[in-house]
Amino acid sequence: MRKLFFFVVFSSISFSLQAQGILSLQRCRELALENNRQLKVSRMTAEVAENIHKSAKTKYLPRVDGLAGYQHFSREVSILNDKQKSALANLGSNTAGKLGTQIGQNLTSLAQQGIISTQTAQQLGQLLSNIAAPLTQAGNNFGQSINDAFRTNTKNVYAAGIVISQPIYMGGAIQAANDMATIGEEMAQNNLALKQQLILFGVDNAYWLAVSLKRKESLAIQYRDLAKKLDDDVKKMIREGVATRADGLKVDVVVNTADLQISRIQSGVSLAKMTLCELCGITLDGDIQLADEGTADLSPTPLPNYEAHSTAYSSDSTAQKEARPELRLLQNAVDLSEQNTKLVRALYLPHVLLTAGYSVMNPNTFNGFQNKFSDLWNIGITLQVPIWNWGENKYKVRAAKTATSIAQLELEDARKKIDLELEQNRLRLKDANKQLATAHQNMAAADENLRCANVGFKEGVMTVTEVMAAQTAWQTARTAIIDAEIAVKLAQTGVRKAMGEL
């Protein structure tokens, strides 16, 4: 129990230290890819698609099924009807009765004709009666044995068997299903890549937004410090009588405004870092430090020659087609639709199936009706040929082909839109670089303007208002540099995303 407690405490401390450490952009990306729940769902979806593909492969193999059953019936099957059963059961009695009557009539006729005496006829009749009794019994027994032989005894029926089926030709349905499963597996991987791209794009934007706000916070503090220094100088001048109280109030307003601006920016920094923490899967306290938030100037990340990629998605190069996961997904949709057309067509082609089996049953009829288990095996082939379906196959194939054409049009449309997206990001990056160069030029002028204003104020040739205007211009120029640097970073991220290299 103590080991478990220390393990939990140590894990919590480690996780807290991780959350409070310095995070670079690359580390934020790694954390996002490790902890994002949607990515975990996509990975599980990819596993599902992989298992579905494996399941589709089994359709080529023989299928073995076992069957077993027992049935109790209230009545058994009877081959003979009740009249036939009665006749067979009384076979001896009926035969002996008819024979005795006929012989008795013959003896009476002979006695009347004087051929034999009456006494002799009586003696012969008595002898016949003595012989008829065992013959009657024997005949009845023989008839009953026939009845018993025809009894089915099917009130309790047992059966068991093994059935083996092997597809020989299914019209290409199995191959089409396997190809669709392969495409489904590729789609799951491409969907995972798409989510990774979107997550990295979101992390990059959140990271640079937090860096921008943090640097603006530092700038606001510097501006507030400049205003406070000016406030101290003005108060001294008021005490010396060389400045008015109105000048002091103007500076106080600027200081208070700067404090309010700092408070607002700090709230924005906390919210931006909380958003970044949520994307990275760490605690949402925002207590993290970013590697670039204290950097004076952000050097631009070198990019590949995106000019060469500006028409990447309208060419037929396989490598270029696979640059964006969105295009790969749409290409998968086209391929899937084509395989679905083959599958629909296969449903209306002849199907050939090889079957074999082994079974046991009780009662059995292999040697008459026997109340015991007996087995047999069988082998055969089944052919199914669609003959007439009122054109159903034609309409379904036509619909599947139309769906393929729609998917191809959507793919071409996406290629055009991605070309446009790449060109827009390229122009945005170009414009951001121009803004950054202009901002640096303005910053140099603002520095010189602020220096001159401070010197002029000390010399008494410039007013408080002019110094505050110079400070405001300096802050504006510095803010423009921060905005331009972040704009360059975001534009570079947009270019890499458009090129499929994020």
Automatic annotation (TrEMBL):
| Residues in coiled coil | 415-449
Known SUPFAM superfamilies for this protein?
A: Outer membrane efflux proteins (OEP)
**Taxonomic superkingdom:** Bacteria
Keywords of the record, alphabetical order, are: Cell outer membrane, Coiled coil, Hydrolase, Membrane, Protease, Signal, Transmembrane, Transmembrane beta strand, Transport
InterPro entries (alphabetical):
OMP_efflux, TolC-like
Query: Where does this chain mainly localize?
Result: membrane
GO MF terms here are: efflux transmembrane transporter activity; peptidase activity; porin activity
Instruction: List the GO terms this entry assigns under cellular component, sorted alphabetically.
Output: cell outer membrane; efflux pump complex
Q: Which locations, inside or outside the cell, does it occupy?
A: Cell outer membrane
Gene3D superfamilies for this protein:
Outer membrane efflux proteins (OEP)
For this UniProt entry, which residues form the secretion signal?
A: 1-19
- GO biological process assignments: proteolysis
Member of which family?
Belongs to the outer membrane factor (OMF) (TC 1.B.17) family.
Q: What protein name does the entry list?
A: Alkaline protease
